[in-house]
């Protein structure tokens, strides 16, 4: 290479030495006879000064430079004049006095987007010109952090005796929750491969095959609507182990996360992680992925609010629902009526019929429902929530799940509004003992809360025939700062139990054999007890980088409309390609 140093390498120890740098012009400043540029590459930025006394031709060429020109400069490293140092960067005490300049490639002007973080374009424009957006130091640091995290995961699991084994990308379509992406077969026309939503079945087969410690950094695909933490294609840190129990998974993953955070961020993570059951998490925080960086827990006041003249409470209690309360203490004086109205809208967004507010005024209360509450009920409410004068109590009365969930989102909104969340904390948490099944209103049947291969708890096996909805699973999620970053379970390894689960899910014997025959057959030939977990790598890195969206830690993400704006995918294909696959589009029938 012609360059002798990177743009982030030169410090005071190089003063007096010759340097050849190559990179992009991020800024240019004319100061009379002196021209300064900031030359940037992925390693950093170096200030270059062009003085006609040091090189007339280089100085003349520097007058032509614009933003994002690719250049090569040659010169001598010198100390910056006193008072002009930039302490914010490693190279801030030196500059290169250029003697030669070669423009390797100019950049069209004006640039379609600005790269200065203070002048950022909207996300749609940034994604359209992603090749420019990726030059921003902030995005480059995110991708460097991603690289470090992936390497750290690989190093850790390699040191622990895990084997990284690749599984197929073209696979059989199986129901796993989201829609599959289908790939038509040219050779077997009328038949389709599916892109895997996860390597779940393959890694279980690997356990049957005797590879007792497997991991993989793997692409997964789900055809679902996008949010800030979802993409059509995403990356998992996939882990599976044989002859283990839940405790073994917890231990190895705690060690893995501590290793990755130390290597990637130089952050020490405290182990073991805190643990909470699903029921406790919902009851106390209103979420199965609680943010424990701040307190403010929910209280169940169903019993305390019984026996009133308030019809809403009475009907909820008669329907075996719940009345949940959230006491806001610290900073509640900052909440206006308008703020409470916004919190009410949040509760309604998550299916609550409303949000009732109770302001504590000495021994009494001020509320729209005060006239319905006798003195003994008020005292019971204040006692249960440990409220005092000046506090605000928010109430939701609904089904247990809706009351917990909606008030949980209100809790998060209050925490953000009142700055109660300690942004410097890294709070890891295990949530365990999830329900085995979850009711689908859309399909009017029970479905697996995690996936159909999750083992029920041993003591709940007897419930599969009589009351499967009451069964708990050997399932667990790992949560970081209120974000679910991974989920896993101890798997079913016995065919008869797997068939019972299929039956509870409404999957017929014929359908099960059609879609999962290879797994069921494998279970007949000595399948070991096994379990594992899959981490969402994109989510982990986004949290590490303090980004709200995983799109900021993925090189070429899709936008919210599932389009790759830079290359305009998805796109139409030719009739010839369709004919080779034995396909013909009938757009009129597909479109509404």
What features would you highlight for this structure?
8-stranded mixed sheet, BirA Bifunctional Protein, domain 2, Gyrase A, domain 2, 22 strands, 592 residues, 17 helices, OB fold (Dihydrolipoamide Acetyltransferase, E2P)
Model description:
There is one protein chain. This protein is α+β, with helices and mostly antiparallel strands. The protein folds into 3 domains: 12-105, Nucleic acid-binding proteins (OB fold (Dihydrolipoamide Acetyltransferase, E2P)); 140-276 and 429-566, Bira Bifunctional Protein, Domain 2 (BirA Bifunctional Protein, domain 2), CATH 3.30.930.10; 298-421, Gyrase A, domain 2 (2-Layer Sandwich). It is built from 17 helices and 22 strands. An 8-stranded mixed β-sheet has the order 6-9-10-22-21-20-17-11, sandwiched between helices. A 5-stranded mixed barrel has the order 1-2-3-5-4. Strands 12-13-16-14-15 form a 5-stranded antiparallel β-sheet, sandwiched between helices. A hairpin with a 2-residue loop joins strand 20 (475-480) and strand 21 (483-490). It is globular, with a radius of gyration of 30 Å. It starts with 17 loop residues before the first strand and ends with a helix.
Low-confidence stretches: none
Would you give the CATH topology of the largest domain? BirA Bifunctional Protein, domain 2
> How do the strands line up in the largest sheet?
6-9-10-22-21-20-17-11
Helical content (DSSP H or I, runs of 4+): 25-40%
What's the total helix number?
Answer: 17
CATH architectural designation of the largest domain: 2-Layer Sandwich
């Amino acid at each position: 290479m012609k360059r002798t140093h990177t743009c982030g390498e030169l410090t005071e120890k190089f003063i007096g030495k010759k340097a050849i740098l190559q990179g992009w012009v991020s800024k240019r400043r004319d100061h009379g006879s002196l021209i300064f540029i900031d030359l940037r590459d992925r390693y950093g930025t170096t200030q270059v000064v062009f003085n006609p006394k040091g090189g007339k031709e280089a100085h003349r060429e520097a007058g032509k430079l614009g933003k994002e020109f690719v250049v090569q400069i040659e010169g001598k490293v010198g100390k910056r004049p006193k008072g002009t140092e930039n302490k914010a960067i490693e190279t801030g005490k030196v500059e290169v006095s250029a003697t030669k300049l070669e423009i390797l490639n100019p950049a069209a002007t004006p640039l379609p987007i600005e790269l200065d973080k203070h002048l950022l374009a909207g996300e749609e424009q940034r994604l359209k010109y992603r090749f420019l957006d990726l030059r921003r130091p902030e995005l480059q640091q995110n991708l460097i952090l991603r690289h470090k995290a992936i390497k750290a995961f690989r190093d850790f699991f390699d040191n622990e005796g895990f084997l990284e084994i690749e599984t197929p990308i073209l696979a059989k379509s199986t129901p796993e929750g989201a829609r599959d992406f289908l790939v038509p077969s040219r050779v077997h026309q009328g038949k389709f491969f599916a892109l895997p939503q996860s390597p779940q079945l393959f890694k279980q087969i690997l356990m049957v095959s005797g590879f007792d410690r497997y991991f993989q950094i793997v692409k997964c695909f789900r055809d679902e609507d996008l949010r800030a933490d979802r993409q059509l294609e995403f990356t998992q840190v996939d882990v599976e182990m044989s002859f283990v129990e839940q405790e073994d998974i917890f231990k190895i993953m705690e060690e893995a996360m501590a290793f990755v955070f130390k290597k990637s961020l130089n952050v020490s993570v405290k182990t073991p992680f805190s643990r909470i059951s699903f029921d406790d998490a919902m009851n106390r925080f209103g979420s199965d992925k609680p943010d424990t960086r701040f307190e403010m827990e929910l209280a169940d006041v169903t019993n305390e609010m019984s026996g009133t003249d308030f019809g809403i409470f009475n009907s909820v209690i008669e329907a075996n629902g719940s009345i949940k309360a959230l006491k806001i203490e610290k900073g509640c004086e900052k909440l206006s009526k308008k703020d409470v109205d916004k919190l009410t809208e949040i509760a309604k967004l998550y299916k609550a019929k409303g949000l009732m507010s109770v302001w504590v005024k000495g021994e009494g209360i001020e509320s729209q429902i005060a006239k319905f509450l006798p003195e003994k009920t008020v005292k019971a409410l204040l006692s249960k929530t440990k409220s005092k004068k000046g506090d605000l109590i928010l109430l939701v009365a609904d089904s247990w799940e809706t009351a917990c969930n909606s008030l949980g989102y209100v809790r998060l909104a209050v925490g953000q509004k009142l700055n109660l969340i300690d942004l410097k904390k890294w709070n890891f948490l295990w949530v365990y003992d999830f329900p085995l099944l979850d009711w689908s209103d859309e399909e009017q049947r029970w479905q697996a809360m995690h996936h159909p291969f999750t083992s029920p708890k041993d003591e709940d096996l007897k419930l599969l025939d009589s009351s499967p909805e009451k069964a708990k699973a050997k399932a667990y999620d790992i949560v970081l700062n209120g974000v679910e970053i991974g989920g896993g379970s101890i798997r079913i390894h016995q065919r008869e139990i797997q068939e019972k689960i299929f039956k509870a899910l409404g999957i017929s014997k014929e359908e099960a054999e059609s879609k999962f025959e290879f797994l069921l057959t494998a279970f007949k030939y000595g399948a070991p007890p096994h379990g594992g977990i899959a981490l969402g790598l994109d989510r982990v890195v986004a949290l590490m980088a303090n980004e709200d969206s995983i799109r900021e830690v993925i090189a070429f993400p899709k936008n919210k409309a599932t389009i790759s704006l830079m290359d305009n995918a998805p796109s139409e294909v030719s009739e010839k390609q369709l004919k080779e696959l034995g396909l013909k589009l009938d757009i009129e029938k597909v479109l509404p």
